Amino acid sequence: MSSTHEVLGAGRLGAVGRLGRPRREWRLSGSDTTWAVAFLLPYAGVFAAFVIYPAVFGLWMGSDPALYRILFSDPLYLTTAFNTLLFAAVGVNVQIFGAFLLSGFFLQRGRFRRILLAVYLLPCALPALSAFVSIHYMTVSEWGFADSLWRTVTGQDGPLFLVSRWLATSVNIAAYIWKWMPFWTLVFMAARIAIPGEVYEAAAIDGAGRLDCLVYVTLPLLANVYLVCTLLAAIWAIGDFSTVYFVSYGAPARQTDILATFGFHRTFDFGYPNQGSAAMMSALPVLIPAVILLMRRIRLTGVQL
User: Fold this and answer.
1) What are the φ/ψ torsions at residue 302 (nearest 5 degrees)?
2) Cα–Cα distance, 58 to 52 (Å, whole number)
3) C-alpha span between 185 and 182 (Å, rounded)
4) pTM to 2 decimals?
């Protein structure tokens, strides 16, 4: 057995040992119980009013089976469902994989990398409204920055990004990746820092190069973190509203809507709140298994290396 495998095996045994330790049970009594209940009641009230009640009310509004027959017979809803799956699949996988690779780049020493990291993190710190509205006006028409730059460089008219369905969808996905990839990069940077340096030293002794360390050391150790980040990002992406609403506004002709914006327009623009709720409830067959898998993964592994 090589030294790398010995170090990796010791790390896994240590993680299993930590998970297998018995937990202490703390029991409250007397005045401690009174204070705990006093502090818990306001939180429980806020949680019931702003989480449980809206969720139950939305389920009740979308509980009529006739609403789903109406939705499934609407070609625009089918287009919207496809857009949502495409938005989540491409946006999530590209940004998580890109964040995984960039985390290794930014962890290397160098003043240039630190400056570049500070600039790279700016989209994540910007408010979604200002960030996405800026992209909207950059691509909205032939007078936008993107088309003006295209015309200046090539001497021809630009592609009019928000007039074509596929170009507008690409702009939505690119804006989503640009906004949230820095956040996941920080997550992977923190996970990489937690990997013991002895693992890479043992791999170097065995003759492993940078690519070998990435494929056979870093990726296996971060597999749990990678999976949890992917599931969490997918759940957020399916319910994302601000990206499509502020970047393309569903243009052209609602062909780039996703379920969140489709439900919003049905509720507030057309006055059919039941159909809007049903549109969002139709994502539950995908969201519920993802949430269950996420919770089971966190409970079983603790997102440990």
Assistant:
1) 65, 20
2) 10
3) 5
4) 0.84
pLDDT in tens, 159-202: 888 889 999 999 999 999 999 999 999 999 999 999 988 888 88
C-alpha angle 99-104-105 in degrees, rounded to nearest 5: 95
Query: Which tokens in the block code for residue 9?
Result: 């095996």
Kind plus residue range of the DSSP H or E element containing 182: helix 165-193
Residue carrying structure tokens 């989503």 = 176
Query: Nearest 10 degrees: CA dihedral of 259, 263, 269, 270?
Result: 120
Length of the chain: 305
Strands (DSSP E) contained in the chain are none
| Cα distances (angstroms) measured from residue 275 to each of 7, 47, 60, 284 | 56, 26, 12, 15
Rg (CA), the chain: 24
- Cα three-residue angle 230-200-206, rounded to 5 degrees: 120
Encoded tokens for 259: 């379920």
Show the domains of the chain with their CATH numbers: 3-13+65-301 (1.10.3720.10)
Strand segments, DSSP code E, in 50-188 are none
What's the CA dihedral at 261, 273, 275, 236 to 10 degrees? 40
Q: Is the Cβ–Cβ distance between 260 and 240 less than 8 Å? A: yes
Report how far residue 173's alpha carbon sits from residue 88's, in angstroms, rounded to the nearest whole number: 9
CB contact set of 189 (below 8 Å; sequence gap of 6+): 103, 106, 107
First-residue to last-residue Cα distance in the chain: 21
Q: How confident is the model over 42-61, as pLDDT tens digits? A: 999 999 999 899 889 988 99
The dihedral of CA 109, 113, 115, 119: what is its sign?
negative
